[in-house]
Amino acid sequence: MSVAVLGAGAFGTALAVALSAKGPVTLWGRRIEWQGQNPLLPGVVLPGGVSVTENLPDADILLVAVPAQAMGGFLSDHAPALDQRALVSCAKGIDLATGRSPARMLAEACPNATVAVLTGPSFAADIARGLPTALTLACADAEAGHRLQHALSTPVLRLYRTTDVTGAELGGALKNVIAIAAGVAIGAGLGDSARAAIITRGFAEMTRFAVAKGADPETLTGLSGLGDLILTATSEQSRNFRYGLSLGRAEAFDPHVTVEGAATARAVAAIAAREGIEMPVSTLIAGLAGGRLGVKQAVELLLARPLKEE
Ligand SMILES: NC(=O)c1ccc[n+]([C@@H]2O[C@H](COP(=O)([O-])OP(=O)(O)OC[C@H]3O[C@@H](n4cnc5c(N)ncnc54)[C@H](O)[C@@H]3O)[C@@H](O)[C@H]2O)c1
Ligand SMILES: O=P(O)(O)OC[C@H](O)CO
């Protein structure tokens, strides 16, 4: 099956590099201003098996690796050309404008496509270097999921399979919000114990939100939920964690860096308020990211919450 990656950022480029171990891969970007090495993925030389193009490619499997907040614009430009394919969303977020997940946006814009999600703990730099990585491939159609799992696994990129698209996708989106909170805790000097509390209580609210949206709670304990939360909330390789660090330290952060958790926190807080889902950490991160709250005030609000059963 032919494979193309749409979106030539760090993750799309890393996936193209990794999958070129199995056969030729086309990497599509809207404006490619580099050759051989993508500045978003420094130090990685594209292998010969990856061909880069600005013309939307024709392939059996299209991995869509644009950020969640860019998915709407991307689909308005390209949806008709994507229908009737296997579309694998690689974005981890919730669209702020519509409150929809990337897979849902793909399915609505391309009603005849088979839609799947690729998610889980994986830094682009690790994948591109060929380091061992385990991910989740989620597809509601179990047979199609099985085919995609095999088509996209390599000896070092191991894909586990699930039919719980909602659980896998929300785990990946929500962990970014909690990773920002973990970064804030460390940046503000609250310590490792506070970070552990935020990760644990954050995981509880990730699960609460996902279950309210129809997810199987067990999915949240897998690679796409807990696995990715552990990675993102504990590593300075993570852009979400680094953004949180800068908030905690009251330092500026490069606005050109993709930080999915900032907009997703605001999307989640709006949905949670509307639907009565208790999401204290995400709601505070939405306030911080939106500039409505300061770190001191956010910490005070969190510590002032009523004592309750775990
Ligand atoms: N970088 C990682 O380690 C990593 C790992 C796993 C998942 N992801 C997820 O992958 C997604 C993409 O992240 P990234 O790291 O590649 O971001 P990035 O900032 O490195 O690149 C984003 C790319 O998307 C392109 N883009 C933006 N809007 C577009 C549009 N309308 N049409 C076409 N292209 C458009 C940009 O030009 C850029 O090349 C995010 O949802 C992220 O959470 C990233
Ligand atoms: O750099 P981040 O914070 O966007 O995280 C990248 C991946 O999602 C980690 O699994």
UniProtKB/TrEMBL annotation:
It comes from the Bacteria. Its main location: cytoplasm. One of its GO terms (biological process) is carbohydrate metabolic process. Substrate binds at residues 92, 239-240. Residues 3-143 form the Glycerol-3-phosphate dehydrogenase NAD-dependent N-terminal domain. It holds the Pfam family NAD_Gly3P_dh_N. One of its GO terms (molecular function) is glycerol-3-phosphate dehydrogenase (NAD+) activity. Pathway: Membrane lipid metabolism; glycerophospholipid metabolism. Keywords: Cytoplasm, Lipid biosynthesis, Lipid metabolism, NAD, NADP, Nucleotide-binding, Oxidoreductase, Phospholipid biosynthesis, Phospholipid metabolism. InterPro entries: 6-PGluconate_DH-like_C_sf (IPR008927), 6PGD_dom2 (IPR013328), G3P_DH_NAD-dep (IPR006168), G3P_DH_NAD-dep_C (IPR006109), G3P_DH_NAD-dep_N (IPR011128), NAD(P)-bd_dom_sf (IPR036291). The active site is at 175 (proton acceptor). It catalyses: sn-glycerol 3-phosphate + NADP(+) = dihydroxyacetone phosphate + NADPH + H(+); sn-glycerol 3-phosphate + NAD(+) = dihydroxyacetone phosphate + NADH + H(+). Sn-glycerol 3-phosphate binds at residues 92, 120, 122, 175, 228, 238-240. GO terms for cellular component: cytosol. SUPFAM superfamilies: 6-phosphogluconate dehydrogenase C-terminal domain-like (SSF48179), NAD(P)-binding Rossmann-fold domains (SSF51735). The keyword NAD applies. Its EC number is 1.1.1.94. NAD(+) binds at residues 7-12, 124, 239. NADPH binds at residues 11, 30-31, 92, 124, 239, 257, 260. Belongs to the NAD-dependent glycerol-3-phosphate dehydrogenase family. Catalyzes the reduction of the glycolytic intermediate dihydroxyacetone phosphate (DHAP) to sn-glycerol 3-phosphate (G3P), the key precursor for phospholipid synthesis. PANTHER family: GLYCEROL-3-PHOSPHATE DEHYDROGENASE, GLYCEROL-3-PHOSPHATE DEHYDROGENASE [NAD(+)] 2, CHLOROPLASTIC. This is Glycerol-3-phosphate dehydrogenase [NAD(P)+]. It comes from Paracoccus chinensis. The lineage of its organism: Bacteria, Pseudomonadati, Pseudomonadota, Alphaproteobacteria, Rhodobacterales.
